[in-house]
């Protein structure tokens, strides 16, 4: 095989089947993680406000929250952190659009599950 044969050879095409994907530059991956992390942190602070507010409200009524209620309140606090970790790990070795999609889907899922927890708390957990 000569040098001219190497020049005339067809270029190899990289595909996802051999494990190569477009990777996000480190600065962009960190920027996306911090930007979306702020939205997830807002969900955590919102859940913390719900936990403190509802327990304070129950104390003002001289009532208590049962065990299932505490599980739901703590789940609302931990859920955004877990979803962010899952979105980060799934999008870690992918392109920027895939990372944005994973973070956005995680935020949507966090919002839906937070509303479900609030609805379940309001309907099923008696304070008293």
Automatic annotation (TrEMBL):
Task: Give the UniProt keywords, A-Z.
Answer: Membrane, Transmembrane, Transmembrane helix
Q: Where are the transmembrane segments?
A: 24-42, 67-88, 100-125
Span list, region Disordered: 1-21
Q: Look up keyword Transmembrane and say if it applies.
A: yes
The name this protein carries in UniProt is Bacitracin resistance protein
């Amino acid at each position: 095989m000569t040098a001219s044969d190497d020049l005339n050879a067809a270029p190899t095409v990289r595909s996802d089947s051999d494990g190569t994907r477009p990777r996000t530059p480190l600065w962009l991956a960190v920027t996306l993680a911090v930007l979306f992390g702020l939205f997830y942190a807002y969900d955590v602070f919102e859940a913390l406000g719900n936990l403190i507010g509802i327990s304070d409200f129950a104390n003002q009524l001289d009532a208590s929250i049962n065990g299932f209620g505490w599980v739901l309140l703590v789940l609302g606090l931990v859920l955004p952190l877990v979803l962010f970790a899952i979105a980060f790990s799934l999008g870690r070795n992918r392109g920027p659009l895939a990372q944005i999609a994973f973070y956005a889907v995680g935020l949507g899922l966090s919002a839906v599950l937070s509303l479900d927890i609030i609805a379940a708390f309001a309907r099923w957990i008696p304070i008293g």
